[in-house]
């Protein structure tokens, strides 16, 4: 993919490096001259300019990008970048960083945002996931579909030990997408047995999360 990242601070550069490692083409757009440091991510294309300006986005060829990531430290700028990318340049996928959780409600498709990533919320979710066993933890929200990525770690005394995935009576709007077992990533098949300590990842709407708990015996 070709990915444009607005904001070449520590977050933007880190994202760029990860994407380049994944063999994607990356362009970094940075408006502050003191943060314009092409030597830090040499494999990326760098553009000095304000990504909130249509002319800069046009000159950078952003319409050729598959994904735009608004990763600045300013929520207002991230919203403007998202809206311009989606409405003016028809970018297929727009991901936006949310710096202040109080602004999270703004980051919707009305502003051109397909996926909103709230760093504080994700950190809180990771902490909760690390200490929660036997309880459902919401890791991420998919704005476009109003679905969530949720996780539950089976405790040692789980009644599901040894039972196949096919015996899980999940609600209609929920899907078990991955089982994490040690260093393995398992794409669940109906005959796969569940084990204590398994991390189960579901995609589900918020209203069926209580039914997932019931299906897992909690």
Automatic annotation (TrEMBL):
Presence of the UniProt keyword Transport in the record: yes
InterPro entries (alphabetical): K_uptake_TrkA, NAD(P)-bd_dom_sf, RCK_C, RCK_C_sf, RCK_N, Trk_Ktr_HKT_K-transport
Keywords recorded for this protein, A-Z: Ion transport, NAD, Potassium, Potassium transport, Transport
Entry keyword annotation includes Transport: yes
RCK N-terminal domain: residues covered: 1-117
Gene3D superfamilies documented for this protein: NAD(P)-binding Rossmann-like Domain (3.40.50.720), Regulator of K+ conductance, C-terminal domain (3.30.70.1450)
Positions of the RCK C-terminal domain: 137-218
Name under which the protein is recorded: Trk system potassium uptake protein TrkA
Naturally occurring in which organism (per UniProt): Amycolatopsis nalaikhensis
Organism lineage string: Bacteria, Bacillati, Actinomycetota, Actinomycetes, Pseudonocardiales
């Amino acid at each position: 993919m070709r990915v444009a990242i607005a904001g070449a601070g520590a977050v933007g550069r880190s994202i760029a490096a990860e994407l380049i490692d994944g063999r994607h083409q990356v362009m970094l757009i940075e408006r502050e001259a003191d943060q314009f440091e092409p030597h830090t991510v040499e494999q990326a294309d760098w553009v000095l300019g304000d990504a909130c300006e249509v002319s800069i986005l046009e000159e950078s060829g952003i319409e050729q990008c598959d994904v735009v990531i608004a990763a600045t430290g300013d929520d207002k700028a991230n919203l403007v970048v998202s809206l311009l990318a989606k409405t003016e340049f028809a970018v297929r996928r727009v991901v936006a960083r949310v710096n202040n959780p109080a602004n999270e409600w703004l980051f919707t498709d009305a502003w051109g945002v397909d996926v909103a990533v709230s760093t504080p919320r994700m950190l809180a979710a990771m902490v909760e996931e690390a200490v929660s066993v036997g309880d459902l933890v919401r890791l991420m929200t998919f704005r476009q579909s109003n679905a969530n990525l949720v996780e539950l770690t089976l405790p040692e005394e789980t009644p599901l030990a040894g039972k196949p995935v096919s015996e899980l009576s999940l609600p209609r709007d929920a899907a078990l997408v991955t089982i994490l077992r040690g260093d393995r990533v398992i794409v669940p098949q109906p005959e796969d047995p569940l084990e204590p300590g398994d991390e189960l990842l579901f995609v589900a709407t918020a209203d069926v999360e209580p039914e997932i708990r019931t299906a897992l015996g909690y």
